[in-house]
Design a protein that fits this description.
311 residues, alpha+beta, Jelly Rolls, 2 domains, seven-stranded mixed β-sheet, 7 helices, rod-shaped
């Protein structure tokens, strides 16, 4: 090294010939800043990416709409898909527009099966209890609202009612407005306002009004048990006599009316005679032979099966 070594750090110093020659030799390798060329996708390749982004956004919107309209919205419409409603600790209300409304009691499960506009809305109660309100005719045709249970089918006649599945497998119906029918097997019972019925695997019992006497209720339960066991006719007639002995009010005609549908002719004849003695014959009917249940129904509903005033 010599005094000219400072040339590398101080260009004002005299040039060192050897160093200058070395710089000239390495000049081609000197670093030069260069702009990085832009790499651009061809325009025709951008459209698939854009279309994919739009499709994803649309799918998210559809999913959000489905979530809020089918899960959070309990209202039903004609043609709606089958679904199940369930409750745990709180009740839940399911409206069918302005036509009907169902309230699921806590711990209940109700399956919606179909709603055919103008004809039928079909449900199935699988556990628990429901309260039902159906607009009366002509707003809603009779037999529009139908609920299946493990032991039979409840059909509305323009009404309000409560339906409960009990732990023993039976179903209990209480009507608070209008009427329903409960169909099980080859038997159908009529349950008007302020009446109730229990239906089990053997079939429907005989409905009674809530204000019927306890003795009449017990006699009816015994008669139903004998009928369901298919015991001999003499035993059935003896149990029927117990029922007749407890008939005290024109409203008890509800029990007698159901006996008009008994398969045994002698039971039907006794029921017809007792009805005539209790409430008289329907208007326009004299001493004709035995009348059918249909002959009696309109007269009994209008004259004796209306709600009790002041209740």
């Amino acid at each position: 090294m010599n005094e000219r070594d400072d040339y590398l750090s101080d260009p004002t110093q005299p040039v060192d010939r050897e160093v200058a020659a070395l710089e000239q030799a390495l000049a081609p390798l000197r670093w030069r800043a260069r702009a990085c060329p832009e790499v651009a996708l061809p325009r025709r390749r951008r459209w698939p990416l854009f279309a994919a982004a739009v499709a994803v956004a649309a799918a998210m919107l559809v999913a959000a709409w489905f979530l809020f309209t089918t899960v959070d919205d309990d209202s039903l419409r004609p043609g709606a898909a089958m679904r199940t409603f369930a409750t745990k600790a709180t009740a839940r209300t399911v409206p069918l527009g302005d036509l009907a409304e169902i309230t699921l009691h806590p711990g209940s499960e109700l399956q919606f099966r179909h709603w055919h506009a103008g004809t039928q809305a079909l449900f199935a109660l699988q556990r628990g209890a429901i309260s039902v309100r159906v607009q009366p005719p002509p707003a809603v045709p009779v037999e529009f609202f139908v609920v299946d249970t493990p032991v039979g089918r409840v059909v509305d006649m323009g009404c309000r009612y409560e339906l409960q599945l009990r732990s023993d497998g039976s179903a209990h119906v209480l009507v608070t407005e209008g009427a329903v029918t409960f169909r099980a097997g080859d038997r159908t019972v009529w349950v008007p306002v302020d009446a109730a019925v229990v239906v089990d695997a053997r079939g429907p019992g005989t409905p009674c009004f809530l204000d019927a006497s306890d003795d009449l209720r017990k006699a009816v339960l015994e008669f139903d048990a004998v009928a369901q066991k298919a015991l001999d006719l003499d035993t059935r007639l003896m149990s029927l006599k117990l029922v007749i002995n407890e008939i005290a009010s024109p409203r008890d005609s509800l029990v007698l009316w159901h006996l008009l549908g008994d398969p045994e002719p002698q039971v039907r004849a006794v029921a017809d005679a007792e009805l005539r003695a209790l409430v008289g014959s329907p208007p326009g009917v004299g001493k004709e032979p035995e009348l059918t249940a249909a002959d009696w129904l309109a007269h009994l509903r209008l004259a004796f099966w209306q709600p009790v005033r002041g209740k």
